[in-house]
Structure formats: C-alpha cells, structure tokens
Amino acid sequence: MKTQKSFDDETKGALYVVPTPIGNLEDITYRALKVLRSADLIAAEDTRNTKKLLNHFDIPTHLISYHEHNKLAREEQLLERIERGELIAVVSDAGMPAISDPGFEIVQAVIERDLKVVVLPGANAALCGLVGSGLPSSEFYFYGFLPRKKKDKMEELERLKRLKASLLFYESPYRIKDTLKAIQEQLGTRRIAIARELTKRFEEFVRGTTEELITWAEENEMRGEFVIIVEGGNESTEDQADPDWWEELSVVDHVDYYIREKSYSSKDAIKQTAVDRKIPKRDVYQAYHIK
Ligand code: SAM
Questions:
Q1: What atom in ligand 1 is closest to the CA of residue 127?
Q2: Model pTM?
Q3: Cα distance between the two ends of the chain
Q4: Does 197 contact ligand 1 (Cβ within 6 A)?
Q5: What CATH architecture is 135-148+166-230?
Q6: pLDDT tens, 96-120?
Q7: At residue 183, does pLDDT exceed 60?
Q8: Does ligand 1 come within 6 angstroms of the Cβ of 96?
Q9: Residue 8, Cβ density class (10 Å: 0-12 exposed, 13-18 middle, ≥19 buried)
C-alpha cells in the first residue's frame, strides 16, 4: 500500500498531468496555465502543436517530445528530473493525457518510484459527448478507438454487448460508417448519439437509433472529430441481435418494452416499434393509445 499527499511538501518534484482544450482555447483552466508556466519542463505528444498553445498564452516553458514512439526511452530522463525536485508537466495534443493518448506509462512509472503525480481536471471529449448525448450517464464504459479490422471490431463489440452501461467510442471520420454498421450487426437497435466537433464552431449532436444514424452517415459527408455514445444493453439484449426479437410481443407490449426497459419517451417508443415492425407509425400509435 502507498499513500501520496499531493501538497504536503511543495519543494518535492512532481508529474503534473495537464489537460488541454479539444477545440476551444477558452477551455484551458487558470490552473493549467499556472502549472504550464511554472513547470521546469513540458513533455508534449507533439511539440509543434503544444508550442502553438503556449505561444497563444505567452508561456515560455521549455518543451520536449513524449509520444507513442519514444515514451519508454524518455521515461528515465523524466523520472530523474522529478527525483531532483523538478516539476514536469505532461500534455497530449488535446484533452486529457492518458485517455486514448500517451501518458499512462509515465504516470505508472512515477507511482512505482514513489514520486508524486497530480492530475488537473479539464477538457475531455468522451465526457462532454456522454453528458450531451442524453443517454444514461449513471454507468458508462469508455472504450476509446475500436480495432480497425472488422473481425477484431466485431469481437470487441460482442464482448461489450451485455454491458448495461452506456458505451463510449472515439472514431475517425473515415471509419464512422463502418463502425455504426458493425454496432448495428452486433448490438442490434439501440439509441445512439454522435457528438461531432465538440467545443468548436461546427459542434453537432446527432441523436437517434442505430439505423437512423447509419442513414445519416450515408447521406452526409463525415468530417471532423467524433464521439459515439451507445445506450447500454439489458437482459434482452441478446434477443435484440435477432431482428425479429419482438415477434412474441403485442404492439402494446412492444412499445411498453422500449418505455420500461430503455427509458424511451412514448413518442420514441412508438417510432421505434414502427421501424422494427416495418409498419406505419400511425398504426402503432392507434394500437397503443386505444389499448
Ligand atoms: N485525450 C483526448 C480526450 O481526452 O478526449 C482524446 C484523444 S484521441 C487521440 C482523439 C479522439 O478523441 C478523436 O479522434 C475523437 O474521436 C475524439 N475527440 C477529440 N476531440 C474531439 C472533439 N472536439 N469533438 C469530438 N470528438 C473529439
């Protein structure tokens, strides 16, 4: 067991994990600016990128690179400097370091050496996407980027299928369509939200069912950065991979299922029931309201 008192001896060195904006520069915090300014060194995923941020805020602190390909080689150097009492800040290109970005290994190494790690709160695309999605946020599972190969992607989705938690994925514009189709194949119909270009001028949330989002992705040019938020499964999730899972249900029970199990509004439940049964919405509406 180990205990860290983060602020008991400010003369000691520390690793500061500093989140940076994911688009809007105003999302940097006062504290992040203070730490970046007072640090002895900033270890950055891409020094050119971070240099622009530092120039914008007039911060002269020295930068070195810390990325996927040199993170192990850099480790010893950073640890020695922290041991000497220096304050090292680690940043990634955007958002929280160590979240689908470099950072985890240095945090782990610092802890192993009994040195201090201090994490600043700040911008993160997944959490903004989740909260804005309107999907349940009481339980969520952050996955990050799914594997690129279809077979591996399907295997991972299979593993996630039974989780009740909302699922959070990062995805590139080039793969978003295929990933939505893989989600449809493996998880069936669910509510999904896509958060695009968060904090930027063209920020957009698209909320709907898996099928609606696939149509949207097919009909629009996919540009920018995306978070995909998928509602969690439930006991009957397994059945839902079968497109006719509802066959034994009456129309009313089918609508009630969506309201009860998936917290749909009655309007959305009627709409989804009509989509599942391939019948007009009006027919479901009548069957449901004249029950
Ligand atoms: N560390 C970052 C964080 O805390 O969010 C994530 C870094 S990861 C390499 C980059 C991915 O995050 C993008 O491909 C996209 O899926 C997501 N992302 C980053 N910025 C975003 C934004 N402004 N809007 C939507 N998604 C974003």
A1: 5
A2: 0.85
A3: 61
A4: yes
A5: 2-Layer Sandwich (3.30)
A6: 999 999 999 999 999 999 999 999 9
A7: yes
A8: yes
A9: exposed
